[in-house]
Design brief:
Blueprint (H helix, E strand, L loop, with lengths): L2 E10 L4 E3 H5 L6 H8 L3 E3 L7 H16 L8 E5 L10 H8 L7 E4 L5 H14 L5 E9 L9 H4 L4 E11 L4 E8 L7 E2 L8 H6 L5 E2 L1 H22 L9 E3 L5 H10 L11 H4 L6 H11 L8 E8 L3 E8 L1
Parallel strand pairs: 4-5, 4-6, 11-12
Antiparallel strand pairs: 1-7, 2-3, 6-7, 8-13, 9-10, 12-13
Helix pairs in contact: 3-4, 8-9
The structure holds oxa(dethia)-CoA.
């Protein structure tokens, strides 16, 4: 049997830090409200000339270096993003060109904040089926570009960044299982209701912004992300005590804490970066994974459950042996 394993991780954050104090100067908000309701202290925002592809390439290069492989050893590139540089070609093709790779398939996956889980699931299946041996999987976003910076209900929550992993074929399983779900009937609760084919005039006017029914999204995120922990553990006949780490999507510390409580996973096993990154959508999980690997918290042989939840709704998880 062939399995996929994570053989390297990388990430990248834009230099510009925007604190809650900075936001106080832009909208009617304050640090106390933002921290109490979301757990966010600061987020990174891409520079005007910095695009999703730039963030993705930096994260990819760090992951490639960590894996100790050559760029031409990569035979699949998937980028999970909601904020592609261009309508087409895909951001994955732009990354491919920047890395000097020619030939292997490169494509984007769009499942908003759950995108990285969808991308990992696909890459794992490519490797298990023998269609690829080494995959570069990236979650990258410049979510700041689809935020209304005059809307205090949304602008305080999001940030920009990128995370990446290299998956390699192995006789020993690294990705133990993946689980994906979507339910399009909730499409209006969290969305940018405009695009190329619909309401394009808003794109031209520069008002293609994220809208969210915060309370309903909150409730759904807690239910979906705690239920999928049970689904993932059951599928692997795992007890929750066998888990070393949980990396939930980083949207709001209250969601993260509620998921941990419902799933009976102690807070010291739950990775949190939302305080410094905000919600970076598809980048949130690989960013948190890379930080935890590099700081030495997550180490080889440990079991990590990663999970995401986003607009659609979409949600997914993976159980990983590092
Ligand atoms: O990636 C997945 C997608 N996103 C999420 O998972 C986010 C899910 N939702 C949430 O995280 C939370 O619902 C929010 C952080 C968005 C909001 O927290 P909340 O505790 O649900 O607050 P709320 O929306 O009920 O608002 C409470 C009050 C309102 O005032 P009134 O109507 O009670 O007078 C808001 O207008 O807080 C007000 N408010 C603010 N005040 C200061 C909303 N945003 C702000 C703000 N600063 N930035």
């Amino acid at each position: 049997m062939i399995y996929s394993r994570i053989i390297g991780t990388g990430s990248y954050l834009p230099e510009k830090v925007v604190t809650n104090a900075d936001l106080e100067k832009m909208v009617d908000t304050n640090d106390e409200w933002i921290y109490a309701r979301s757990g966010i202290r600061e987020r990174r925002i891409a520079g005007e000339d910095e695009f999703t592809c730039d963030l993705a390439v930096q994260a990819a290069q760090n992951a490639i270096q960590a894996a100790g492989i050559r760029n031409d050893g990569i035979d699949l590139i998937i980028v999970a993003t909601t904020t592609a540089d261009q309508v087409f070609p895909s951001t994955a093709c732009l990354v491919q060109q920047r890395l000097g790779i020619s030939g292997p398939p490169a494509f984007d996956v769009q499942a908003v904040c759950a995108g990285f889980l969808f991308a990992i699931d696909i890459a794992d299946k490519f490797i298990r089926s023998g269609s690829a041996r080494t995959a570069l999987v990236i979650g990258a976003e410049t979510f700041s570009r689809i935020i209304d910076w005059t809307d205090r209900r949304t602008c305080v929550l999001f940030g920009d960044g990128a995370g990446a992993v290299i998956l390699g074929a192995d006789r020993e399983p690294g990705i133990l299982s993946t689980h994906l779900h979507s339910d399009g009937k909730y499409k209006d609760l969290l969305c940018v209701p405009t695009g190329v084919s619909r309401n394009y005039e808003r794109v031209k006017a520069g008002t293609a912004y994220t809208t969210m029914e915060g309370g309903e999204v909150f409730r759904w995120a807690v239910t979906a992300m705690s239920d999928i922990i049970d689904e993932t553990l059951d599928a692997n006949h795992f007890d929750r005590n066998d888990l070393d780490w949980l990396i939930p999507h980083q949207a709001n510390i209250r969601i993260i804490n509620a998921v941990g409580r419902r799933a009976a996973i102690p807070p010291e096993k739950v990775i949190v970066t939302v305080d410094r990154h905000g919600n970076t959508s598809a980048a949130s999980v690989p960013l948190a994974l890379d930080e935890s690997v590099r700081s030495g918290r997550i180490s080889t042989g440990q079991h990590v459950l990663i999970e995401g939840f986003g607009g659609g709704f979409t949600w997914g998880s993976a159980l990983i042996r590092m």
